[in-house]
């Protein structure tokens, strides 16, 4: 009777202790979650460090380590450790074999000393009493594990302890996933920013190129203007005689400018005669001829007489071949002859003779 | 542009044996017709040999006005009077040439002075090839 009561009381005490322990572990899990949420860690090693120290302190383990799958996927790297002096001991090929084996079980478990000795003497040296471990899974894939060993009070790892470790591993898995997403996000933001910068730079370069082009165009325009100014001088050859030597190609634009300048000069200086000298014009087509005829007619509308001089042999041939009619225009051999003719006509005017063109 | 009354006429001045018409404003269609009438009446009534139309005051000339000017010249010639147009604006001259219009049968002079000189010369021929082009 008394033994029964004692037994029952012991069991009750046991159950109470376990219940208390369960409550504590739940609380601790909450604390871990809160810690991760509030710290918002983004670095894997920082997460593992925090996690490792919290779990090992709760489980009263002197030795602990958190390993993560290395980037090449071949083995496991020690990311965080406590009570283990040399991390290399935990990441050798022999150790990796053991990790692979425990991870393949996919559950939290305890590996006792004897078992470990048979599998890996070097690990056995570090963990002579065996160790408890739990894999960390992200999306059904094991990415690492937590190893705890050497409890302070020498007790073994209980089922509750392992459950706690599983739950904690779940939390760290979520945190690691978050960190990974965060890193990806950061990377994306950075690449977008970089692209934006690149685009801005390209746009700026284009703008500069455009400006450069504009400047060059402006220079070209100025030079063109200067060339035109230089190539169509209007000279006062004599009293009442203007000379306009035309050099180069005469297009519509240039002919309009020639006409404008010549007519302005005629009205300004009130000259009676104009000698249009085309010695410098090598090529003449119907359009060019038409331009000359127009210039001459416009000058005559103002009351000035126009004489065309210096038609080159080739030009003369072309004009006849293409059938340009210059009969209404007086043409002379060269500018000298033109000036002579002008002087003669002026003399006629002064002597009040009949004007004859 | 200033409003001109309906009765306004362009003045026609007689100087020795010439009539001088100085147009110093933009011509309306009415004014052009009126001027044509006035000139022909004056030529008939007064004994003159030359007509000078000074257009230095016109800065816009359309095909209608240029044709009217040419008509006046032709009419006057039929009545035995030589016509000279003076002071044509360079821009107008360019436009006329570009439009392919020319003032056939009408001589041109730089200014009023040269126009008078031109008419004072022996009136044997009108301007030959140059103006007949």
Structure in words:
The complex is a heterodimer of chains A (357) and B (133). Chain A has 10 helices and 10 strands. Chain A is of the alpha/beta class. Chain A has 2 domains: 185 residues, Beta-Lactamase, CATH 3.30.450.40; 119 residues, Transcription Regulator spoIIAA. In chain A, strand 4 and strand 5 form a beta hairpin. Chain A starts with a helix and ends in a 7-residue tail after the last helix. The C terminus of chain A is likely disordered. Chain B has 133 residues and is of the alpha/beta class. Chain B is built from 5 helices and 5 strands. A 5-stranded mixed β-sheet of chain B has the order 1-2-3-4-5. The C terminus of chain B is likely disordered. The interface between A and B is medium-sized, with 31 and 35 residues.
List keywords for this structure.
heterodimer, A: 357 residues, alpha/beta, Beta-Lactamase, Transcription Regulator spoIIAA, 2 domains, 5-stranded mixed sheet, 10 strands, 59% helix, disordered C terminus, B: 133 residues, 5 helices, 42% helix
Poorly predicted parts of chain B: 124-133
The whole-angstrom Rg of chain B is 14 Å
Low-confidence stretches of chain A: 353-357
Report the order of strands and helices of chain A. Answer: HHEEHEHHEEHEEHEHEHEH
Helices of chain B, by number, come to 5
**β-sheet strand percentage of chain B:** 15-25%
The CATH topology of the largest domain in chain A is Beta-Lactamase
User: How many runs of DSSP E, i.e. beta strands of chain B?
Assistant: 5
Per CATH, what is the topology of chain B? Transcription Regulator spoIIAA
What is the assigned CATH homologous superfamily of chain B? STAS domain
């Amino acid at each position: 009777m008394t033994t029964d009561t004692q037994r029952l009381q012991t069991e009750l005490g046991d159950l109470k202790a376990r219940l208390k322990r369960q409550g504590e572990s739940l609380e601790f899990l909450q604390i871990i979650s809160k810690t991760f949420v509030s710290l918002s860690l983004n670095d894997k090693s920082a997460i593992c460090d925090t996690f490792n120290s919290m779990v090992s302190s709760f489980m009263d383990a002197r030795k602990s380590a958190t390993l993560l799958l290395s980037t090449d996927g071949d083995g496991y790297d020690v990311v965080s450790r406590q009570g283990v002096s040399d991390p290399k001991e935990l990441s050798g090929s022999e150790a990796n074999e053991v990790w692979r084996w425990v991870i393949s079980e996919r559950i939290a478990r305890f590996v006792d000393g004897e078992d470990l000795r048979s599998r890996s003497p070097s690990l056995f040296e570090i963990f002579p009493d065996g160790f408890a471990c739990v894999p960390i899974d992200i999306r059904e894939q094991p990415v690492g594990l937590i190893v705890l060993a050497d409890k302070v009070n020498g007790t073994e790892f209980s089922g509750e302890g392992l459950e706690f470790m599983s739950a904690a591993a779940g939390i760290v898995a979520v945190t690691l996933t978050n960190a990974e997403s965060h890193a990806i996000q950061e990377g994306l933001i950075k690449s977008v920013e970089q692209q934006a910068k690149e685009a801005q730079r390209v746009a700026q370069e284009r703008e500069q190129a455009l400006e450069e082009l504009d400047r060059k165009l402006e220079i070209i325009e100025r030079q063109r203007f200067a060339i035109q100014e230089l190539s169509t001088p209007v000279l006062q050859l004599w009293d009442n005689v203007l000379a306009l030597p035309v050099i180069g190609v005469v297009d519509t634009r240039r002919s309009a400018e020639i006409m404008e300048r010549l007519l302005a000069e005629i009205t300004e200086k009130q000259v009676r005669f104009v000698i249009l000298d085309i010695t410098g014009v090598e090529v003449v087509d119907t359009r060019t001829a038409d331009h000359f005829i127009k210039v001459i007619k416009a000058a005559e509308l103002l009351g000035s007489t126009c004489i065309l001089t210096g038609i080159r042999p080739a030009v003369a041939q072309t004009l006849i071949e293409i059938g340009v009619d210059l009969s209404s225009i007086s043409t002379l051999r060269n500018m000298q002859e033109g000036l002579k003719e002008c002087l003669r006509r002026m003399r006629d005017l002064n002597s009040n003779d009949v004007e004859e063109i | 542009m200033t409003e001109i009354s309906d009765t306004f006429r362009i003045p026609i001045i007689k100087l020795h044996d010439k009539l001088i018409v100085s147009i110093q404003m933009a011509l309306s269609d009415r004014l052009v017709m009126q001027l044509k009438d006035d000139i022909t009446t004056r030529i008939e009534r007064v004994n003159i040999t030359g007509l000078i139309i000074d257009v230095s005051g016109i800065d816009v000339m359309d095909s209608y006005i240029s044709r009217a000017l040419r008509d006046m010249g032709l009419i006057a010639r039929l009545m035995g009077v030589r016509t000279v147009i003076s002071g044509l604006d360079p821009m107008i001259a360019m436009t006329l040439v570009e439009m392919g219009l020319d003032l056939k049968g009408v001589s041109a002079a730089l200014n009023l002075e040269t126009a008078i000189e031109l008419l004072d010369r022996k009136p044997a021929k009108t301007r030959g090839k140059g103006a007949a082009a």
